[in-house]
Amino acid sequence: MERSAESRNVDNYEMLAEYYDALLQDEEALSLWLKYIEEEPFSSVLELASGSGVMAGILKKKGYDITASDISEKMKEVSVKNYDGEYLLLNMTDYHLNMKYDLILCICDSINYLYEEELDAFFRCAYEHLNKNGRLIFDMHHMDRLKEFEEQYIEEGYVCGVPYQWTIMSEPEEKEISEHFTFFTEGGMIQENHNQNVFEPETVQMHMKDLFQVRVIEDFIENEKILIVGYRK
């Protein structure tokens, strides 16, 4: 693969956003998320870390009152191809909306971008924006992912005609997973680094216990994703 001598690093999703759906769309996970989302009645939804807006678009078409959100302006820009509703720019650990929802949703391992010391703020914000008995649904990496990527994973190919390399490596002792994306564009080599923290389910439950009744689905996607449902107390 030809590599340009010019190189620059960009912030999370500044480059990846454009290719996110082509590289990372997971139809199996989408159907599974919907199964648990729709197993109990609800009307209003706040989705955190909505990314390219795929799930928000699906829920809007189903007739739900959904507000999408993300911290990334670039992801909001690309979401218009999937979702044509309200899309807020916000930090999922620090937001104050004059609204309450039946459901707050945070999928695609987005919670793993947080550090453990940020979890309390994440759960407190969700709690304050949920109706009584409302649900918080999120997924996160299974602990087995640390073993899976102890040996570096490397993927190379073309996405939308652009050569790319995607590597994943874990640090089991630190409970971290690092993903590195390189795009070999005509203007030079562009790189993005994404670092995520992997949490023990018991750790997450501990941070939730005062605010939520917690249900853990450890086999949501075997050895890959854990789904957690929190019911607002």
Explain the overall architecture:
The radius of gyration is 18 Å and the shape is globular. The chain has 233 residues and is of the alpha/beta class. It has two domains: 7-15 and 144-196, N-terminal domain of TfIIb (Single Sheet); 26-142 and 199-232, 3-Layer(aba) Sandwich (Rossmann fold). It has helices at 16-24, 27-37, 54-61, 73-78, 119-128, 144-148, 201-208; strands at 7-9, 44-48, 65-70, 87-89, 101-106, 130-141, 153-159, 162-171, 176-185, 188-197, 212-221, 225-232. The protein has seven helices and twelve strands. 24% of the residues lie in helices and 39% in strands.
In short:
The protein is an alpha/beta fold.
CATH topology value of the largest domain: Rossmann fold
In terms of per-residue confidence, which ranges show pLDDT below 50 for 5 or more consecutive residues? 1-5
Number of helices: 7
The CATH architecture of the largest domain comes to: 3-Layer(aba) Sandwich
Brief descriptors of the model:
five-stranded mixed sheet, seven-stranded mixed sheet, globular, Rossmann fold, 233 residues, single chain, N-terminal domain of TfIIb, 2 domains, 12 strands, alpha/beta
Which SSEs are present, and which pair or pack?
Layout lengths: L6 E3 L6 H9 L2 H11 L6 E5 L5 H8 L3 E6 L2 H6 L8 E3 L11 E6 L12 H10 L1 E12 L2 H5 L4 E7 L2 E10 L4 E10 L2 E10 L3 H8 L3 E10 L3 E8 L1
Parallel strand pairs: 1-10, 2-3, 2-5, 3-4, 5-6
Antiparallel strand pairs: 6-12, 7-8, 8-9, 9-10, 11-12
